[in-house]
Please model this.
Amino acid sequence: MSKVVEISPTTRHEGHSKLVLKVNDEGIVERGDWLSITPVRGVEKLAIGKTMHQVPKIASRVCGICPIAHTLAATEAMEASIGCEVPEDAMLLRYILQCANRLHSHALHNILSLPDMYLPGTDTKINPFSPEEPVRSVGLRIQRLREIAQTIGEIVGGEAIHPSNPRVGGMYTNISPLAKQKVYDLAKEGRVLAHEHSEFMIAVFRNFQKRDWAEVAGRQIPIPGDLGYHNQGYMAAAPIYGSSSMDENPTWFPERWTEVRPWDWYMGEEEITLEDKDYPVGGTTPAGEKTWPQMQACTGVPLYDGQPVEVGPRARLVQFRNYDEKGAMGLQIARQMEYEGCLYGIMEACDALDCSGKVLADEIPQGDGSLGWAANEAPRGCDVHLAKVKDGKVRWFSMLVPTTWNFPTCSRALTGAPWELAEVIVRAYDPCVSCATHMLVVDEDKRIVAQKLLE
Amino acid sequence: MVLGNYKTCVAARSTDKEILKGAQDGGIVTQLFAYALEEGIIDGAIVAGPSDEPWKPEPIVATTKAELLAARGTKYNLSPNMSLLKEATRSYGLDRIGIVGTPCQMQAVRKAQLYPIGMRDVPDKVALAIGIFCMENFPYQSIEALVEDHCNVKMESVTKMDIGKGKFWAYTERGAVAQIPLKVTHKYEQPGCHVCLDYVSNLADVSTGSVGTPDGWSTVFVRTKIGDDVWSKASAAGCFETKEIESGKTGLELVTKLATDKITKNQKTLEGRATFGVGKGLRNPYL
Model:
C-alpha cells in the first residue's frame, strides 16, 4: 500500500517548489511529482505591446541569478524576429557575459548543495559557512569566484545583476582596453581557483556516490547506486553560448517542442498519509491534509519530441563532450566540469575582442511580425525565448526556461530513491524556480484550473 | 563655518609650464590629477573635456595626461560629471576614480557613497574628489547668449572666460577683451543654483578656486585625510609652488565674504520657496 508524503516547501534552491511523493512501505518513491508553486511573474503578458528594447530588460527581471541569460535570450529573440545582424565585437562581449554568469551561478549552487554532502573520509556533513578548515577556505574560494564573475559581469554588462549594456542590435558601449585587461586578469586569477575548486567539489560528490548511507532526520538512509537515474533524453543548443533562428544551422527546433497542461501531467488530488516531523526544516506536511499537484503546479510541461528532456550542464556535456554519467551525482559532477571552460571562454573572447570595434548594428529593422527564437545556454540549461516583433513592438513573447524543462524530467528521476533523498536529487538540477513559473490557470470564478493561457 | 572643515589653506600654482599655459588660474586640478595618475593614486579622472561645440564641456574619463590637458580651464556651463561616475567603474574598468566638480556635484558624490542606490560597487572606488569654488552656473544657451550677444564675440574666437572683479570676461584669439558687468549675467543663471548653500565645495577632498589669491594663483583648501595625503605628496614631489594665503581683504577674508554672500542670498530663496504657492511650500534640500 503506497503512502503519500509532501515536502513543501523544498529548500536550498531558488524559488518556491514542492515535492509530492507516492512511496511504498520501504519509503522508496514509486511516483514523484516535483512542481513549482512560485507565484506567476506574468512577464510574457507584460511584454505584449512594449517596445522590443524594453522587453529584454523586463524579461531580465524574472530572476536575479541568471538575469544575463534572460537578457541575452530575449535580446537575441528580438534580433532574430526583426532579422538584425549583430557586430562581432558585441557578440564577444555577450559571450564574456555568458561565461561570467555561468561561473557565478555554479559557484553559488555549490553553497546550496554542500550541506547534503560529507567531508570525504568522515561522517561529518559540510557546513559551507563553518569557520573551520578545510571548509573555510572552500567557502572563501566560492565567494572569490563569485566576486570575480560578478565583477566581470559588471564591467562588460554595466551591472552584475540585470545587465544594462546589452541591447537589441548589439551593445550600448564597448569596453576600454583598461577594462579588458582587468577582465583578463580576473579570469586568470579565477582559472586557478576554478581548477582547485572543481577538483574539490568532484571529490566531494564522488565520495557521496561511494557512501552507503546519508543522515536525514536523524536516520541513516541508504543511498541507492542509481540515485536520480532517469531514461529521458537531453537537450542542449551549444556547449557555452547558444543558438537562434538567425543561425545558418540552428541547434534548437521549435517544431519539436510541444506543451502539456499540468492538469494532464501531474497527480490528481491526494490525501497525505505519511508524515515526518523530524524532516528538515520543520517536518513534512502533516498527515490528513490534502494536496492537488495538477491544480497547484504553475508551469506548463514542455516536451521535446513528445518527451520530457533534461537540460543543463550534463545535457551540454552529453551532446557536445561525450559525457555519459547518469544520476544526481553525475549531474553535479558535470556542473563542476564546466567551471574552467567559463574562464577559458572569457580569456579567448578577450583575446579576440577589439576595444575600438563597432558594437552596434548600423541598421536595426523594426520587424514584420515573424517568429524569432533564441536558445541561450543558461547555467541551468537551455533558455529559449520566442518573440514576434512588428513595427518595433512586441506582439507575442514566450519564455521556455531551463527549470521548466527539468521539472518533469527530474520528477521521473525521483522514482526508486528513498523519499528522504528526493531533495538531494532535486538540488542536483540547481533548480531556479521563479523564472520557470509562467502560467496561471483560472476559471470564471478565479479558481485555479487547467486552462491554458499561454497562446 | 562658511568655508567648511579644512586642514590647511594655501595659495598655490602648478610648477608645470604646460599645465599653466591653458589653466584657468593655478592649474591645481589638472596638476593634482596628473600627479595622482602618474603615481597610481587614481586610474583615471572624470573631467570636463572638450566637445563638438565650442566651450560646451562634455564629461570624459581622462586616463592620460594629454586628456587632462585637453580639459584645462573653466567652461562656465554645465558639465554633468556625475553621469560618468558609475560608467567609469564599468566599461572603463577603473578601480580608483578621480572626479572634479562643483559643490553640488561633490554633494552628489558623497551622497552616492553614503546611499549607493543604483551605485553598486561605486562608493569604495572614489579615490580623489576635487571640488571647485562656485557662485552659480549657466546653461550652455546662457553662456552662448552672454558671449555672442552681450560681449559680441564669436564663441569659436574665445580663448578664455573668467569671472572676477565684479565682471564677466571673454578673452579672444586676437587679443581683444570683452567684459560685461556681472549683474547682466544674473538672469542667465541656472535657477537651481539659487538654493545652494555651498561656495567652496565643503565636501571635497581638496577644493580650489581663484578667489583669495593673485592672478595666476589658486586658493586651495585641503579638507580630508585623503586630500591631505595626496596634496602633501604632490607638494613634496615639487608639483606645486605654494605661498601663505593672505589674510587681508583680497585673501581669505574675500573668500569668506563671498561664501557668506552666497549663503545669505540663497537662504532667502530657500525661505521664499518654503512659502511658495498656497499651503504647499517647496522642501529645503538642505534639511
In short: Chain B has nine helices and eleven strands. Chain B touches chain A through 14 residues (CB under 8 Å). The radius of gyration of chain B is 19 Å.
